[in-house]
Amino acid sequence: MVSLRMSQTNGKDEHLTAHLSDVLAECRTMITTVGIIFGFLLNVALTVKFQDPIADTLLWIAVWTSLVSVMLFSMPVIYHHAQFPYKSREKFILRSHTFMIWGLLPFLVTLFLGLTLAFYQKLGTMAFALSLFTFLILGLIYHERNRTLTLELYPNR
Predict the structure, then answer these.
(1) Position 153 in a domain
(2) For labeling, which of 75, 80, 103, 129 is most exposed (least CB within 10 Å)?
(3) Which range marks the domain in which residue 125 is found?
(4) In a domain, 156, yes or no
(5) Could you count the other beta carbons within 10 Å of the beta carbon of residue 69?
(6) Structural contact between residues 23 and 93, judged by C-beta atoms closer than 8 angstroms
(7) pLDDT tens-place string over residues 74-123
(8) The pTM is what?
């Protein structure tokens, strides 16, 4: 009975450790991605002066949302160091996922504004429609993800 409980506990610990490792790996990936976007947008904001106030506003909002996104994606790492050793790994993993989900919102806004800004100089206000159309297509693809075809990788087995 004791060995069964210990093996269940060890299996749960291994499962939580794997989840913890996944969360921190996701944070590293997202911090790097958004950090590169933030650096690019900040460089553009500091070196290029747009004559159009709309383009300038879009750029500075994109810089701000990318900064917020980097901070939210960094929170699991900060939380990891502040709470170590953990009293509850489950609590840490749930809070980290919450930070990641909240970080996705400003990240998507940054991508939307960056795409809009890229087309704004040539298309004017139609750039908003193009960006919205692009994001609607991505939303549709995400919504239909469960209806995709599955491939048999090993048909002869």
Answers:
(1) no
(2) 129
(3) 2-146
(4) no
(5) 27
(6) yes
(7) 998 888 778 777 777 788 888 888 999 999 999 999 999 999 999 998 99
(8) 0.76
